Amino acid sequence: MSARHRIVLTVNGQRVERDVEARMTLADFLRESLDLTGTHLGCEHGACGACTVQLDGNSVRSCLIFAVQADGARVTTVEGLAVKGTLSVLQRSFQQHHALQCGFCTPGMLTTAQAMLAENPDPSAEEVRRAISGNLCRCTGYLPVVAAILDAAAQLRSEAA
């Protein structure tokens, strides 16, 4: 039996306090303890990117981090990208550009792209490709994903102006 630890963190803007086993991954914590099943588990080795979430604004593989390591942090999952039940600009852009098919990789792509756009609001296509290079997709190819991210970036810059 693994030791249990009390963690307190903010998930999608909500304070969360739970006791967790020391060996529980952040991905399992999000899915099993908080029922945030948008965080997908693929390879569970950090190679596919399906479990990507934002930890204090940075993209991380939640399958490689223990929940106890997120104590005190801000975590944003794909569920946290929508604003008051309305899809974010990035989510709408993915929809408009048909940048998803089966949807398995989409949460990781979205959280990765959101973190990248927060850091670089005017990326080149090459910078977008580099940012999502750790997110594997078997359905769409990457052209519609890159187009969606570039379009969302342009929309966000326009809104900010």
The number of distinct β-strands equals 5
Q: What name does the CATH topology of the largest domain carry?
A: Ubiquitin-like (UB roll)
- Report the helical percentage: 25-40%
Specify the overall morphology.
Answer: globular
- What letter string, H or E per element, gives the SSE order? EEHEEEHHHH
| Biggest sheet descriptor | 5 strands, mixed
Q: Supply the number of structural domains.
A: 2
Low-confidence stretches: none
Strand order of the largest sheet: 2-1-5-3-4
CATH homologous superfamily identity of the largest domain: Beta-grasp domain
Helices and strands: which structural class?
alpha+beta
What is the radius of gyration computed over CA atoms, rounded to a whole number of angstroms? 16 Å
Layout of strands and helices, then pairs:
Blueprint: E1 4-11, E2 14-21, H1 26-33, E3 52-55, E4 58-61, E5 74-76, H2 89-96, H3 106-119, H4 125-131, H5 143-160
Parallel strand pairs: 1-5
Antiparallel strand pairs: 1-2, 3-4, 3-5
Helix pairs in contact: 2-5
Overview of the molecule:
The protein has 161 residues and is an alpha+beta fold. It has helices spanning 26-33, 89-96, 106-119, 125-131, 143-160, and strands at residues 4-11, 14-21, 52-55, 58-61, 74-76. The chain folds into 2 domains: 4-80, Ubiquitin-like (UB roll), CATH 3.10.20; 89-160, DNA polymerase, domain 1 (Orthogonal Bundle), CATH 1.10.150.120. A hairpin with a 2-residue loop joins strand 3 (52-55) and strand 4 (58-61). The protein is globular, with a radius of gyration of 16 Å.
